[in-house]
Design a protein that fits this description.
CATH architecture of one domain: Orthogonal Bundle
Order of helices and strands: HHHEEHHH
Strand content: 5-15%
Largest sheet: 2 strands, antiparallel
Radius of gyration: 18 Å
Distance between the termini: 29 Å
Length: 145
């Protein structure tokens, strides 16, 4: 449901959120820390920049910063910027090849509910909430954001 590229985008955004308010962070630093291919991460960062999630800074001390605060930025927005809207295998918006007919497909109704549930969770979970939950679950020190 969320691609590897989408998951990496969330990880990179979480990394930037931990540094929110500080200096721009280079792709190299994020790639090394998160163990993501630099080249793959560069395309992800460009996609996030095009979506208005990140700001890029040029120059020797350049890199990326979040355009919004971690409190306002949701996982749903990040995932949609990379993967588009979440859709289950049998889409609520498109007819499946295996369905006998749209009106007869009871599974379609359930999968529509699944898609809505996923969307709701992603759209209400902020980057800040994820960082705070990590702190509670793992006892990891929280940086001020």
């Amino acid at each position: 449901m969320i691609s590897r590229k989408g998951l990496y985008a969330v990880r990179a955004t979480l990394f930037l959120a931990r540094r929110h308010g500080g200096q721009p962070v280079s792709v190299d630093e994020i790639a090394t820390d998160e163990r993501i291919s630099r080249k793959f991460l560069e395309t992800i960062m460009q996609d996030l920049k095009k979506a208005g999630i990140l700001h890029s800074h040029r120059g020797k001390k350049g890199g990326y910063t979040l355009k919004e605060t971690p409190q306002r930025l949701t996982i749903g927005r990040i995932v949609r910027a990379i993967d588009g809207p979440p859709v289950t295998t049998c889409s609520a918006h498109e007819r499946c090849e295996d369905c006998p007919g749209e009106g007869d497909c009871l599974i379609r109704v359930v999968l529509h509910d699944v898609t809505n549930a996923i969307t709701n969770v992603l759209d209400f979970k902020s980057i800040e909430q994820m960082l705070r939950e990590r702190q509670v679950v793992h006892g990891v020190p929280m940086y001020d954001i």
